[in-house]
């Protein structure tokens, strides 16, 4: 870190601290740093979060904040309210403040090259956490920590194939996609389609975004129930949309988990409860507890140490029985 000391002196003067509510204060980002004596200085991380759209996101924010505290890393947290333009602004502000490291969860995959080049030119390492970008130039970031979303979509599809293995009848599926253009929406859709595509009895009758929220999940499922007379299966890209859809299904006088089988992704507490209650049939886990690994990687990249280009989160799946067992000790 000492090689960055001259930059850090500048940072003290420029710094604005961003808070979770998006306000700013004039608290300096670094203490006074004098000629090379930066060894005991706290690492400053600028973190741009997607928003607060789901139970997963809330758990992820908590994990990042707690892990930063524990690792002695000063976190400048900024909530983008699911808007890419807010994230770009936050990243630019972090560059201007000359934070030691930037971490962010890109709301969508495309459109990051310019701002990432600005960070690179300023010599500020960037870590992608949770979601990926589609930049061809992978030198724009040091590493990507998060789940394998294609694999998650495949696991959802594999459960379905197994569930209907003895049936020859057509299976009508509706799909609630995550945020349009986001890595988890693109990849979960692709993984699921690949697995069910092997058998022509599986038909996706309708597929639309519910933006990863409960409210939109309900709204879009209401529309699906009107447009598609017989729905056998709902595949929702996260628990929250699935939970919203359950309200729509019950409102239409149908029984979720029975009349319409439901597969979701995440395994947050509310989702696991619905699974244990028989309203969801299967959940593919996606862990939001990325904080400790993120802080570990941050410490390394700030020191200039090599880190793996990709760090994949370990995850499992849950049936209704397994959810009953796991619920009491579930952390999020
Ligand atoms: O599945 C969803 C959240 O990017 C993995 O974003 C994350 C997804 C998660 O809103 O609930």
Question: What is this structure's SSE topology?
Answer:
Blueprint: H1 5-14, E1 17-18, E2 24-25, E3 44-49, H2 55-71, E4 74-79, H3 84-97, E5 101-104, H4 113-121, E6 126-129, E7 143-146, H5 149-163, E8 171-177, H6 183-196, E9 202-209, H7 214-227, E10 233-236, H8 239-251, E11 261-266, H9 269-276, E12 282-285, H10 291-303, E13 310-312, E14 317-318, H11 320-326
Parallel strand pairs: 3-4, 3-5, 5-6, 6-7, 7-13, 8-9, 8-10, 10-11, 11-12
Antiparallel strand pairs: 1-2, 12-14
Helix pairs in contact: 2-10, 3-4, 5-6, 7-8, 9-11
The chain binds beta-D-fucofuranose (GYE).
Describe this structure in words.
With 332 residues, the chain is α/β, with parallel strands linked by helices. It folds into two domains: 40-147 and 288-314, Rossmann fold, CATH 3.40.50; 149-286, Rossmann fold, CATH 3.40.50. Helix content is 40%, strand content 19%. The longest helix is centred in the N-terminal third of the chain and has 17 residues, at 55-71. Mean pLDDT is 91; it is low at 1-37. Beta-D-fucofuranose (GYE) is lined by residues 53-54, 56-57, 130-131, 184, 212, 238, 240, 265-266, 286.
Report the bound ligands by name, code or SMILES.
beta-D-fucofuranose
Integer tally of domains: 2
What is the CATH level 1 assignment of the largest domain?
Answer: Alpha Beta
Q: How many strand units?
A: 14
Radius of gyration: 22 Å
CATH architecture of the largest domain: 3-Layer(aba) Sandwich
Could you say which structural class the secondary elements and strand pairing correspond to? alpha/beta
The overall average pLDDT, rounded, is 91
How does the overall form come out from the CA principal axes?
A: elongated
Number of helices: 11
Helix-strand sequence: HEEEHEHEHEEHEHEHEHEHEHEEH
User: How would you write the strand order of the largest sheet?
Assistant: 4-3-5-6-7-13
β content, as a range? 15-25%
What's the CATH H-level superfamily name of the largest domain? Response regulator
